[in-house]
Write a structure and sequence with these properties.
This protein is α+β, with helices and mostly antiparallel strands. It folds into 2 domains: 33 residues; 108 residues, 2-Layer Sandwich (Alpha-Beta Plaits). 51% of the residues lie in helices and 23% in strands. The chain contains 6 helices and 4 strands. Strands 2-3-1-4 form a 4-stranded antiparallel sheet. Strand 2 and strand 3 form a beta hairpin. The longest helix has 25 residues. The chain starts with a helix and ends with a strand.
Length: 148
């Protein structure tokens, strides 16, 4: 009788531990499991995400400078697949999503070259608006990986 009670108690504890482990495992962040492997790091499509403060009164100048300066330069870059430009009127924030064939091609572009294009962009904007500094401040830059 004592052995039976002892075994039942042990079985209850084991079952409780298994249930606890299952619940714990289910709470794990599965994004880690689905993250890009090192192989996909070099090959998977990546999206560059940029957020800028774009005041309403300067929106057209900003869009024109984007089309005149950034668009031709981006189109000449190896791995560039296209981009989307979105603007939130209420927040006066622009979202630019730049699609790249893979992260390796995107990151192979020299910062010196990017800074030169940015300087041309800013000069275009400042002369168009007759301002001494660029009114479009970078709020955020990051990247999105395709998890599909």
């Amino acid at each position: 009788m004592k052995v039976t009670v002892y075994l039942k108690e042990k079985i209850k504890r084991v079952c409780f531990m298994l249930i606890f482990l299952v619940v714990l495992i289910c709470q794990t962040n599965f994004q880690i499991v689905q993250a890009l492997s090192m192989e996909n790091y070099q090959r998977g499509i990546v999206i560059e995400e940029l957020r800028l403060k774009v005041p309403s009164e300067f929106k057209e100048v900003w869009l024109n400078a984007e089309k005149k300066i950034w668009e031709p330069w981006l189109s000449s870059q190896d791995g560039f697949l296209g981009r989307q430009i979105l603007w939130d009127k209420e927040k006066e924030v622009a979202l630019i999503l730049v699609n790249w064939k893979n992260k390796k091609l995107w990151k192979s572009i020299s910062m010196k070259e990017v800074n030169e294009v940015q300087a041309k962009f800013e000069e275009n904007v400042k002369s168009s608006l007759k301002l001494s500094e660029n009114p479009f401040k970078l709020i955020y830059e990051g990247e999105l990986d395709n998890q599909g």
